[in-house]
Amino acid sequence: MLGIKALPREEIEAIFSLAKSFQEISTREVKKVPALRGKTLINLFFENSTRTRTSFELAAKRLSADVVNFSASSSSLAKGETIIDTVKNLEAYHPDIFVIRVGSSAALYALTQHTEASIVNAGDGRNEHPTQALLDMFTVSQQLGSCEKLKVLIVGDILHSRVARSNMFGFRKFASQIILCGPPSLVPFDCAEEGIRVEYDLDAAVESADVIIMLRVQQERQTSAFFPSLREYSKNYALTPRRLARARKDALVLHPGPVNWDVEIHSSLKWRVHPLILKQAENGLAVRMAVLFSVGTKKRTL
Ligand code: NCD
Predict the structure, then answer these.
(1) How far apart are CA 152 and CA 148, in angstroms?
(2) What is the CA(257)–ligand 1 centre distance, in A?
(3) What is the predicted pLDDT for the residue at 192?
C-alpha cells in the first residue's frame, strides 16, 4: 500500500466495508480477533508521529499480529547505520509487514527493493499518506453517506502536504471536485492544469464546500520563508467563526492532526470542530485494521 494514486476505487470501497465491520471489535470487552495471528509487523518510523504510529500498533494488536516498534532516534541509525542496512537487518527476522514513515519518497521506494514483506506507507515525505486519506474519506462517507460528487476544500500548506495529495487522488476517484486554498507560495502551480480549482480567498472558498480539510503548516519541510509570519498566515488562512459562518451549516471540518489551534483553526471553534477531528482518529484505527488485514492476508501490495 504505497499510495492512493494507483489504488483503484473498488479497492478503496473494499477497505471501507472491511473498516466498517472492524469498528465493532474496538467496542468489545475483549478487543481482539485472530485474523493476523502468527504474522509479524514492524512499525518503522523515521519521522515523528503520534496518531499514525499508535493506531497502526493497536490495529495490528487487535488483529493478533506480533508488533515491533522501531523509532529512528533510539536505533542504530543514531550510530550511523543506513536506512537500507537497517531494513536488511530487520528483514532477517522474516517480518510479514513493514509500516514505514520516512522523509523521502525515494527512500520508501528503495526500501521496497530490500524486503520480501508487504509495505504500508505511513507517510513518505511530502508525497503520499494513503491511510490518512482513507480515514478522511471513510469519515466523510460515514457522515454524508458517500464521497461521491462532493466539493472538497483543502486549506493551507498544500505544497508540503502528503495528506492533501493523497486526498486529492482519493476524492477525485469519486468524482468529487477539489478546491485548493492557501497562500500562492504554498499552492503548487500545476494544480490548475489538472482540473483542480485554486482559490486564494478563503472567505469565498468556504461558501460552497461540503468538506473543509484544514492542514498544518509543515514548518519542518519548509526550506525558506513562504509567508511573512504565522500571524499573517492565520489572518488570511485560519478558519475563524466569521469564516465558518459563511460555510454551509452542515459542512464537515476535518484536520489530520496535530492541530495548532489559532494558527489553522481559531480555538473558539474547538467545541464545533474537535469532535469530528477525534472521530477521524477513531476511524483511523478501523481503517488501519482493514488495510493491515488486506495486506497481511493477500500478501501483496495494494
Ligand atoms: C499528518 C502527517 O504526518 O503527514 N499527520 C498525521 O499523520 N496525522 C499531518 C501533519 O503532520 O501535519
Answers:
(1) 11
(2) 6
(3) 67
282 Cα–ligand 1 center, Å: 15
Strand order in the sheet with 118-124: 66-71, 40-45, 97-102, 118-124
Query: Which of the 8 DSSP states describes residue 207?
Result: G
Give ranges for CATH 3.40.50.1370 in the chain. Answer: 9-129+282-296, 131-281
C-alpha cell at 161: 502536504
User: 131-281, what's its fold?
Assistant: Rossmann fold (3.40.50)
Summarize pLDDT for 254-263 with one digit per residue, the tens: 999 999 999 9
From 163, 261, 280, the mutation candidate for ligand 1 (largest count of ligand atoms within 8 A of CB) is: 163
| pLDDT under 50: residue ranges of the chain | 301
Mutate to test the pocket of ligand 1, among 53, 55, 216 (most ligand atoms within 8 A of CB): 216
β-pair partners for 252: 211
Instruction: Report whether residue 160 contacts ligand 1, using a CB cutoff of 6 Å.
Output: no
Ligand 1: nearest atom to the Cα of 122: 7
Q: Please enumerate in sequence order all residues whose Cβ is within 8 A of that of 206, keeping only pairs 6 or more positions apart, or say none.
A: 153, 212, 239, 243, 244, 246, 247, 251
User: Tell me, which fold does domain 9-129+282-296 have in CATH?
Assistant: Rossmann fold (3.40.50)
**Residue where the block lists cell 466569521:** 242
Residue 133 neighbours by CB under 8 Å, 6+ apart: 4, 163, 166, 167, 169, 170
If one counts every other C-beta atom within 10 angstroms of the C-beta of residue 262, the result is 14
Residue with cell string 509479524:
40
Query: Which amino acid is located at 262 in the chain?
Result: D
Q: Is the CB–ligand 1 distance for residue 288 below 6 Å?
A: no
Predicted TM-score of the model (pTM):
0.95
